[in-house]
Write a structure and sequence with these properties.
Layout: E1 4-9, E2 12-16, E3 20-22, H1 23-26, E4 27-30, H2 33-39, E5 43-46, E6 51-56, H3 57-67, E7 72-77, E8 80-86, H4 96-123, H5 126-138, H6 146-163, H7 178-204
Parallel strand pairs: 1-7, 2-8
Antiparallel strand pairs: 1-4, 3-5, 6-8
Length: 205
C-alpha cells in the first residue's frame, strides 16, 4: 500500500490576526485517509504578527516528518507559500486622524470630479448642444433648456453607478466591476512587495 504523502502548496493565502494556520489551510494533500486525518490539522503558523510570512516546502515537509516519520513526503507545484495576516476580525477603535483623512480625501475627490465634469462640458459647449437638440425636437429655440439638462445630469450619475456595479442583480452572474479589479491589482502589488521585503530580510539573516 502506498504510504506516500503528496503536498501541493496553495501559493498565497490570507489569515486573520491571532488565527492559527493549519496544514490543510495552506496545501492540498494527497495521501491515504488515515494519514490525512493525522496531518491536516498540524499547526504551521500562529498569526500573531501582521504582514507576510513565507514558508518553504522544505519546512512543511519537516513538520510532517516530525509527526509521521515513517512515510515519504513529496512536494509538487509551488515551492513556498506566502501567508498574509491582517487585522480583519479584530476589534478596532475608530482613529480620529484616519477618519479626518478619509473625509478630506472624499471631499477633495467629490469636488475635483465635479469640476472636471464642468470643465469638460464647458470645453465641448454642452449647453449649446442641448439648445440645438431642443430646437431640432421642438422646432423652437430655448435659452433655458433645464428639461434636458436635469435628466442629462441624472443620467451621468446613473451611468457611473451602473459602470461600477452599484446596482447588483441577483439574477445575473456576479462579475467584478472596474473598481474591484483595480483594488485587486493594488492588493496583489502590496502582497508582492511585502513578499519581496520579507525575502530580503530572510536573505540578510
Amino acid at each position: 500500500m502506498n504510504r506516500s504523502i503528496y503536498i501541493q502548496l496553495r501559493g498565497q493565502i490570507k489569515g486573520q490576526l491571532g488565527q492559527t494556520i493549519y496544514l490543510k489551510d495552506i496545501a492540498h494533500l494527497s495521501c491515504p485517509w488515515d494519514i490525512k486525518e493525522k496531518i491536516e490539522d498540524l499547526v504551521v503558523l500562529t498569526g500573531n504578527d501582521i504582514g507576510v510570512t513565507l514558508i518553504d516546502a522544505v519546512e512543511i515537509i519537516e513538520i510532517v516528518r516530525q509527526a509521521i516519520p515513517s512515510v515519504s513526503v513529496f512536494s509538487v507545484g509551488e515551492k513556498q507559500v506566502s501567508i498574509y495576516v491582517d487585522r480583519i476580525g479584530e476589534s478596532r477603535k475608530v482613529d480620529l486622524k484616519v477618519f479626518v483623512k478619509v473625509a478630506i480625501s472624499s471631499l477633495l475627490l467629490f469636488v475635483g470630479s465635479g469640476l472636471a465634469l464642468m470643465y469638460f462640458h464647458a470645453d465641448v459647449n454642452m449647453h449649446e448642444v442641448h439648445e440645438v437638440l431642443i430646437t431640432a425636437v421642438t422646432g423652437e429655440e430655448s435659452i433655458s433648456p433645464y428639461w434636458i439638462n436635469i435628466p442629462y445630469s441624472i443620467g451621468i450619475g446613473l451611468g457611473i453607478a451602473l459602470f461600477f456595479g452599484l446596482f447588483p442583480d441577483k439574477k445575473r452572474v456576479k462579475h467584478p466591476d472596474p473598481l474591484e479589479i483595480e483594488m485587486h491589482k493594488y492588493q496583489m502589488d502590496v502582497e508582492s512587495y511585502l513578499e519581496y521585503k520579507e525575502g530580503q530580510k530572510s536573505g540578510e539573516k
